[in-house]
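#data-curation
PF: Archiving a pair of folding outputs for the training set. Convention for this channel: one message per protein, sequence first, structure tokens after, nothing in between. First:
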Amino acid sequence: MLDRITSALPATVILVSTLIPNLNSATEANIETINAAIPAMVKARTDNGALIYLADMHTGYITDADLNQVDGIHPNDGT
């Protein structure tokens, strides 16, 4: 998808995010595997001139305490 966007609209700025944490340990392990691959994917494209920026939403920005304790997936609404 990134390649299609940058080919069709090379002046477009794209923001890519890592996945947020998850309280389920098996799901979190999968998220960590996926997140580990994202920086290299972004760098490969920025090295070729793409205007892509990475927002790390997993490391310290959203913590386990921010997640809905019922589903362990979604950030809570603060109430």
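PF: Second:
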Amino acid sequence: MSSSSALPPGEERGETLWRADYSKQDAASAGYRIKSNNLDALPRDVPAWPPPVITPEVPVPHPPGSLNRCLRFALPSDCAIKRYEVEPGHRHFADGEDAFFGFALCVDDGFPLADDGWQVVWQLHGEPLTGSPPVSFLAQKNQLWINGGWGRPGAVPAERYQYEKALVDIGKSTWYNCVCRVRFDSAPGAGAVSLWVNGAEILCDFAPPCGTNYTFADGAPGRAYLKNGVYRKPTVPSGGSIYFAAQALGTGYGSVDPLNI
């Protein structure tokens, strides 16, 4: 897709540092890390799901990104799925870093935008591996939400720094072009998250109560890493598919904007 959209006021084009290559035939070749613990079916006697696939078959035509292809997570209706994710193959993020993430998101008519439970579709998971992520986006109750902070290392009680905030209405068979900026800081109430959806600013320098990174129990700084796909409460009905396209990491808005690819 040719570059045509204007940058938001105050934002720069920047440099693209990583971009998924959807011209490839599988997710690993496209630039994603595939780990068995991210392909987790329930009950336990059901084999783990195969990795998601690169496909031109989408619920609505012309997703952003190369060759109009995308990453598809198909969720079978005959088995509950707890975790079905991949890790974009770029670096992890330490305190003091500032990063832009771009992605386009679409769910088909069979995918549940659940009214009961929780359903993470994009998360900056914390190292150490504990608690809920400091920053995650959820698709549920026909909205996109930001959520995180439960079980932050050292938090008493575990929900002390937990937060959740509805951001924007979303529907099925519609592409949502997202740019997220994160300033990483492990101090509670520090760091910042901004989000644009289809070019509109939805969130501006929001400071999560838990921070945007975590530290280890001894105070040593941790590092966040990105995962996307589906991570959900097992009682959420399965079925349908979720699609990602135009996924990128960069140093400015224009370097990751799905509408500029």
